[in-house]
């Protein structure tokens, strides 16, 4: 079964489902609050290929997480989709998604907000872990490393 390139791009940037704020070990979400920018995927700097098959290649050009201190946030992603059959860039897209997050020990569980009447999978959709200078999200094709910007 082949996946439609547009559907694959939507899948690659995340499924939408609602979340909340809950701190299992008493860590305050305000400690996570801030802006985090993607610097590398699987150790490679941006732009980085995040999905590729015989039909298309999806490349992330920029990705930013903004965490509010109330357990909510917004992700902004710019991607490029290139069809192999033509070699032409079909689409450069910019998407924003809202999310809720919970802190569970050393993990930050990120759950995207589900659009009305949409069929969504339950979260969490991403698991982030703090690093010395930001966050790391484990994923495919490898870890996504984000640097925290100074306030």
Share of β-strand residues: over 45%
SS-derived structural category: mainly beta
User: Helical stretch count?
Assistant: 1
Give the strand order, joined by hyphens, for the main sheet.
Answer: 1-4-5-6-7-8-9-10
Strands, count: 10
Distance between the termini: 46 Å
* Outline type: globular
Integer-rounded radius of gyration: 16 Å
Largest sheet: 8 strands, antiparallel, barrel
Q: Could you report the average pLDDT, rounded to the nearest whole number? A: 82
Helix content: under 10%
Low-confidence stretches: 1-26
Instruction: Give the H and E element order.
Output: HEEEEEEEEEE
Description:
This protein is mostly beta strands. Helix content is 6%, strand content 50%. It has one helix and ten strands, in the order αββββββββββ. It has one helix at 5-13, and strands at residues 34-41, 44-45, 48-52, 56-67, 72-83, 89-104, 107-112, 126-130, 134-137, 144-148. The chain has an eight-stranded antiparallel beta barrel. A hairpin with a 3-residue loop joins strand 3 and strand 4. The model is unreliable at 1-26 (pLDDT under 50).
